[in-house]
Amino acid sequence: MSDQPGRVRIDKWLWAARFFKTRGNAAEAVAGGKVHVNGQRVKPARAVGPGDELKIRRDDFEFMVTIVGATERRGTATAARLLYEESAESVERRERVAEEKRLRRELRTGPDRRPDKKGRRELLRVKKGGL
C-alpha cells in the first residue's frame, strides 16, 4: 500500500493498466530505464497518481500516457483502459511503426515452407559445389 492516498507504486500501476503481463516484468522495465515519469527515470517503488505523464517503451513501440486513475488491482482490459489517456501523437506514432513492421514483413523474401528431403539434398549439393 502507498502512504499517499490516490497514489500507487509504478510497477503495480503498469501491471494493473495491462502494459505488462506480470508485475515483475513491469518492475524490470522500470529499473531498466524503459519507463519515465514526467520526463525522469524512476525506480519501481516510485508512487504515481492522476496527472503524471508516463513514457513507456515496449519492443519497438512507445506509449505516451497521462494517468487518469490509480489502482493496485488488475481488472478487465476495458477497466484498465480507463486508467490512462494516450496522446494522439503517441497513437499515430505507434500505428506508423506497426505499419512499417508489417511492410517489412511483407517485403521479406524467403521460402514459403521448409524444404523437403529432396530439396535439402539439392541445397547440400549446391553448397558443396557439385551439380
- CATH architect. name: Roll
Instruction: Note the main sheet.
Output: 5 strands, antiparallel
Report the order of strands and helices: EHHEEEEEHEHH
Structural class: alpha+beta
CATH class: Alpha Beta
- Based on CA atoms alone, the radius of gyration comes out at 22 Å
Assembly type of the chains comes to: single chain
Question: What do you see in this structure?
Answer:
It is a single chain. With 131 residues, the protein is of the alpha+beta class. It has a single domain (8-109), classed as Structural Genomics Hypothetical 15.5 Kd Protein In mrcA-pckA Intergenic Region, Chain A, CATH 3.10.290. The chain has 5 helices and 7 strands, in the order βααβββββαβαα. The chain has helices spanning 10-16, 23-31, 77-81, 88-107, 117-128; strands at residues 8-9, 35-37, 40-41, 47-48, 53-58, 61-67, 84-86. Strands 3-2-5-6-7 form a 5-stranded antiparallel beta sheet. A two-stranded antiparallel sheet has the order 1-4.
